[in-house]
Amino acid sequence: EKAVNLKKDLAEMQEWMTQAEEEYLEKDFEYKSPEELENAVEEMKRAKEDVLQKEVRVKILKDNIKMLATKVPSSGQDLATELNVVLENYQLLCNRIRGKCHTLEEVWSCWIELLQYLDLETAWLNNLEERVQMTGNLPDKLDAVNDALESLESVLRHPADNRTQIRELGQTLIDGGILDDIISEKLEAFNARYEELSHLAVSRQIALEQQLQTLRETDHMLQVLQESLGDLDRQLTSYLTDRIDAFQMPQEAQ
C-alpha cells in the first residue's frame, strides 16, 4: 500500500509538472502593451515561486522512496527509477521557468530604462526649445547677443550618449517583437522633434554668431571714430586756445 501511494504521488507530481509546462512555457505571448508585459512578469514570478515551493514535496517523496527501498528493495527500486525521471523533469522545469522569469524581468527593466532615457532627453529638448525661443527678440546689443549665444551653445553641447541608449534599447525590444508598435511611435515622435529642434537651434546659433560679428565690427568702428573725434576735438580746442585764424588751419579743421 505504501508503494502504491508513493507511485500515485509520483504520477500526480509528473502531471502537475506537465500542466505547469503547458501553462507557463508553451504559451505564445504577445506583449503589445506595457500592461500585458507587466502582467506577464508578475505571472512568471508567481510561477517561479509555485514551482520552487514544490521542492519540499519532491524532497519528501525522495526520502519516503529511499526509506521504502531499505525495507522493500524490489518495490523501492522500481519507484527509484520513476523518481529519477521526476527529479530530472522537475529540475528542468525549475531551470526553464527561472530562465523565462529572468528574461521577462530583463525585458521589463529594458522598457523602464528606455522610458527614463526618453524622459531625460525630452526634458533636454524642452530646455533647448526654451533657449531658442529666448533668442527671438533680443536687443541689438553686444552683451545681450553674446549671452544668448553662450546660453544656446551650452545647451547644444549636450552629449549624445542618452540618444544612443534610446536607439539601442528601442531596437532591442522591437527586434524581440515586444511593445514594437508603442516603441516605434515613441521613437518616431522623439526623433522628429529632435531633428526639428536641432536644425532650428543650429540655424539660430549661426544667425547669432553673424549678428555678434556685425555688432563687434560696428562697435570697433564706433571706437575708432570716437578716438578720431576725440583727437579732432583736442586739436580744435588747441586752435581756439591759441586764437588761430580759421584760414590758417588745415582744410579738415576748417
User: Which outline best applies?
Assistant: rod-shaped
Cα-to-Cα separation, first versus last residue:
136 Å
CATH architecture level-2 label: Up-down Bundle
CATH fold descriptor: Methane Monooxygenase Hydroxylase, Chain G, domain 1
Q: Tell me the radius of gyration.
A: 40 Å
Main sheet attributes: strand count, strand direction, barrel closure = none
Question: How many individual β-strands?
Answer: 0
Helix content: over 70%
Succession of helices and strands? HHHHHH
CATH class annotation:
Mainly Alpha
Count of DSSP-assigned helices: 6
Number of domains: 1
Note the beta-strand portion.
under 5%
Question: What's the assembly state of these chains?
Answer: single chain
Structure classification = mainly alpha
Low-confidence stretches: none
InterPro entries: Spectrin/alpha-actinin (IPR018159), Spectrin_repeat (IPR002017)
Organism: Alaudala cheleensis (Asian short-toed lark)
Protein name: UTRO protein
Keywords: Coiled coil
